[in-house]
Q: What sequence folds into this?
DNA sequence: GTCTATATAGAGATAGAC
DNA sequence: GTCTATCTCTATATAGAC
């Protein structure tokens, strides 16, 4: 009845949410099937093995990230705006009680199928590369200020966000927002409250 | 044959390693039993359910952390020395390919039994409290310099280390060391290379 | 305390009807 | 494309012998 793409992408959407909520080993074909109102075998039709599903998942993250990146480029965002968009992206995860997919793979690493790990490495490469260029550009234009190589700052920024999402789940959601505000300060960006004031002043 | 404490603590040691390597859902009673050369049922004798095991695990982390903390106090460590000890603690995890237990719970959160989550919250409280006091003391004595409340800096520090251990597994181990070096710089501590030079000159 | 044996449930996966 | 039915393997967990 439905076109091929329909169910397939619903499965991926569902799996994505489960992945960032419960971890890769924290959900099963049965969970997905139940949520979508189909049977176990229907999910296997699209993704014969869980490795296939996991790999498709990570590859979709990459595609989404690329699209997101391009949108920023199209809108000719400044480095500061781009970084704020990245904070928003992670902030939405926090609102939904999710963690970063890179953190999931990092924690479950030895149990993650190799094709999936490889794709994750590639995703990480792309994210770090983008963050590096963004930080570099921002510093060159005088909008950001920080010491040391942009590539190293990029990795530590990502690590703090990733860890922050996890701590927010154990502790309190606001922990994440305070971390983001600290990161802003360290980069010489307007803080969250300053930003609110700017918006209010309009 | 062996005294009660013997096997029990071997189980906990083994479970601890598996937990920080594969995650809480990434290992089973069978894994532990095989590694220790005993049977499944022997493990269940000490920890009837996996909840019991997980809870004992987190409580042992708390005990170990308290002991570690007291040792620092006994040795009258400065704030900088104390922080370096904490970096070493996490650095040993990295060397062993492990991640921080807080990260494991953070990622698998909804699937973690509630008693274990509660104990983890308490552990996190203690770690953040200790880090906060340490940062505060160091700043008051002029050995550390950073802006903002020490409590917030404590959380972001922990998040960066935790995320760093995870990224190090996906990417490259050295990513973690570079993050630590950045954290040192941000706090006005001598960097890793400066420290090496001091030791060499020493 | 540790063993053998077993119960039960869930997960990943496949065959074949519709 | 989705279903029912079923297979196999693994995981948690228990009973009872030694």
A:
């Amino acid at each position: 009845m439905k076109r091929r793409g329909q169910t397939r992408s619903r499965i991926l959407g569902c799996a994505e949410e489960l992945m960032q909520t419960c971890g890769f080993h924290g959900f099963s074909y049965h969970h997905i099937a139940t949520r979508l109102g189909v049977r176990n075998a229907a999910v296997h039709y699209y993704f014969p093995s869980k490795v296939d599903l996991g790999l498709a998942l990570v590859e979709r993250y990459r595609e989404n990230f690329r699209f997101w990146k391009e949108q920023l480029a199209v809108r000719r965002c400044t480095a500061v705006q781009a970084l704020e968009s990245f904070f928003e992206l992670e902030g939405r995860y926090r609102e939904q009680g999710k963690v970063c997919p890179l953190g999931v793979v990092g924690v479950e690493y030895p149990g993650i199928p190799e094709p999936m790990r490889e794709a994750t490495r590639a995703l990480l490469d792309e994210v770090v590369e983008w963050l590096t260029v963004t930080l570099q550009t921002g510093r060159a234009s005088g909008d950001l200020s920080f010491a040391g190589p942009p590539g190293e700052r990029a990795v530590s920024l990502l690590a703090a966000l990733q860890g922050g999402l996890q701590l927010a789940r154990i502790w309190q959601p606001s922990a994440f927002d305070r971390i983001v505000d600290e990161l802003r300060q360290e980069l010489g960006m307007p803080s969250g409250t300053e930003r609110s004031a700017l918006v209010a002043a309009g």
